[in-house]
Each structure stands twice: as C-alpha cells, then as structure tokens.
Amino acid sequence: MNFAKNLKCKECGRVYPLDPVHVCEFCFGPLEVFYDYETLGRVLTRERIEAGPPTMWRYADLLPCRRETAVDIGTGFTPLIRANNLGRLLGLNNLFIKNDCQNPTWSFKDRVVSVAASVAREFEFDTLACASTGNLANSVSAHAARAGMKACVFIPGDLEQGKVIGSAVYNPTLVAVEGGYDDVNRLCSELGDKYPWAFVNINVRPYYAEGSKTLGYEVCEQLGWRAPDHCIAPMASGSLYTKIYKGIKELTWLGLVDWRATRMSGAQALGCSPIYEAWARGTFTIRPQKPQTIAKSLAIGNPADGYYALKVLEQTNGAAAAVTDDEVIEGIKLLAETEGIFAETAGGVVISGLRRLVQEGRVDPEEVVVAFITGAGLKTQEAVSPALAPALTIRPTIDSFEEALGERQRSPASAPIAVGGERR
Amino acid sequence: MEKKRVKFTFVQELIKEPVIWKLAKQYDVITNIRRADVSDDRGWVVLELEGERDEIERGLRWVEEQGVRIDPVYEDIVEG
Question: Is the pTM of this model over 0.80?
C-alpha cells in the first residue's frame, strides 16, 4: 500500500499531484511529499513494521513508493550500537552510534537513492543521473544497475581514483567534467532542464529526500520504540538532518513513540560551514561559501535545505558545531580507537562536533544521544593515512620484534587520543 | 523564447542597486520575481527570466559582473 497523498510546497503550501516535479510553479519553493496520516494512524502499528524485512523497506508505508516494486539492494536497518567507550571519554552515559557505514555502497546515500530509483522506475524514466564527488555517485551507479536503468554520473575532473572506481565498477556513463565545483553545478542544472532523466536531487528530489527519514524511524525502533533525547548529524545540504527529525516527528504523530522533544544538533566542517555560520550569527539567511575542507562529502557551499535546517535547530533547541580539518581526523581516530568503527570524514565531523558540544556544556550527560555516522572510512583513506602510526618493520627474530615494540610504546603517535584532543 | 529560473544573491553593497530593473532595461529579458528575502546585510531573489536564450545568457553574464551570485533555484546540485 502507498499512503503518499500529494506534493506540497514548503513555502506557500500549494498542493501538487505526485509527479516528477520539484519546485512550486507559483513561488518556486521546494516541494515535499505529504501523506495520508489519518489512514496511516489507523493502519500502521509497531507489529506491522516489525513484520517487514530487515531493511529500510520495513517502513515502506511511510515512503512514497511500494515495497513490492522498490529498487532494493539491501539498504538500511543498520546497527545502532551503545558506545560505552566513547561515551566514557566524552562524559556521556547513554551514547549510541548509528552506523550507516554498513549500507551496500557504504554510505547513507543508499537510503535516498533507493527511493529515488524506485520512484524513477515507477515514472518510467530510463536513466538515473546525479552530480557527485563520491558517495552519491557510487549509490546511483549501483541502484541503476540493480534497476536495469541507465546511469549518467557527473564527477569533477580532478576526483581521486579510488572514488571513481567505486562508481565505475557498476558501469555507468561516468562523465568527468573539466573545471571546478561551480562548473559541474552549473552544467548539471542545465542538463537537468534539458534531458528527460531522473536527476536524483533535482526533479525527483522530493521523493529522494524522503529516504533519509528511515534513519529516524530505525533509531526509534532500535531504542525499543523510544525517541532519542538528542541527535547529532552531519549537515551538508541540510536534507539528511531535517529528514531525520521529520521521521521522529512522524512516528510521534502516529502514536508509535512518545513525544520526547528530541533536540537536533548538527555538525559541519569549518571549511564549509554556511549553516553553522548563519546559526552562530543568529540569522536564517545563509551566506554561500566556497568549500575548502577534507570533508568533501559535506562540501556544499550553498545548501538547498540550509534554511530549513536552521529552523529545526531553533525549534528543537539544538546546537551547531563546526570543526577544523585536524579535528575531523581526530574524530575519525577517536571513533575507530574506542568503538572499532572506521568512518569517513563526515563521521569525523560528527564525533568532533559532539565533543565540541559536550565541552560547551550543550549536551546533558544523562541524555540518550545518537550520533549518526553516515559513511565508511575506506572511501576517504587519503584523509587519515598521514596521521596514522606506521606499521612495525622488523627482521624475523623475537629480539627485533621486541625492540620495535618498545619503540612503538614510547612513540606519542601510538597513544590513545584523550577527549581534549591531546594524546595521553 | 526560453524561460530560465534562477536565484540572485546580493551582498550588502548591492542591495540598493536596481540590478533587476537594469537587466530588463538593458537586455531583452522579461523578469518575473517569485520569491525574495532582503535583510540588512544580504538579499536574495528567486525569479524567472524569459527571452531568447542568447539574450538571457548575455544578461546573466552582466548581472554576474555586477557582483551578484547566480544559482539554480534548487541551490547546489553536486553532492558528496
């Protein structure tokens, strides 16, 4: 069954049928999927969800497409782990990590693309397209392959080889565009108008964005049908951050979890922090920035949902944090060394952002806190490799091993990171 | 005739300048404002431009030369 009712303009409230359109014809405001919550409230139960598959599609009733025809490569229902070691270091007694590294193409983008690909196929598009510096390109390429669709993926011409392979293996039409980020952006906005493709974050964006809600649903279900007290998520376009909150709100509207006034905090890299910067100035006007950070998966200088992210920050009494590139690496290492999870740079932003908010006294030690780790570290190895302790190279003798081991134990690089960022 | 939807972002120094009026006056482009927000330090306007493709392009180049940032109405498309 599908309970999606229509598209609604987030600015003027005008209603549109469920078509592949993304902006309001009247005010050019963004459109969002609206559901028949009245019927959903009668039909949807915890048991109905629990009887579904162990993927994001167990929440198909709350998505704009049917489970039976979904393009599903096994995305979602990723682990929520209790992070006692990291929590102890940060001074948090109830810290959880939502580990979305464990999706099929190793990032949360599989959630949004799974919905976009499903809807695109229902609308009878034959090509799935996107412009991306990494995770989105990987996911679009994989889902198009599964759906039997063509894929056209645009990437900046100077992208690292490792990221190119993660898309190329699925055999999309991979287009490396000469020029910088702005050039790719401009070209793709024109292509989106010209070609009859499903451009995942243009003409099917209202549907695509809905996939991120499943992170909010999963966390509530995995906490035993309880909303968290405090979430911290990375902010790039602001879409993921706002949709996690939408997911939590929907479950409370439907009576599936109790309202807990969940606080939503967000983290950005200082080198691309337009949402943080507006929040710090106390304004809802975003100043576009030119990204300059190693956290490339968050490098959106002019975020489409920045204004709405600022609204959620305000409504939920959340806080924003921006961290330096050095802190990003510290965050990656801190998570790896305490919880055994190797996150990409966005995860480093979240962990260091959380550390910053704790230091500023913005997180209560007793709150149930969920930190969203949205992509796996193998994708951004080059960011962290210079900061890692080198392997021991020895002769094949016990003496040589013990000598090297002694040297390593004396080396500051091998000491665990303390909460203040210094090595202990 | 073609239509193009764009967002202009003005820095503080340009807020008092009649850039959109000049665009329509100097180029054969119809400007149709759909949404806008102007604060004391920054302003943005979402509008539709109608005209011959080349004329729109020439007009947009001129707007950019004035120091106005031009984006698609859906902001950044390239994602991580």
Answer: yes
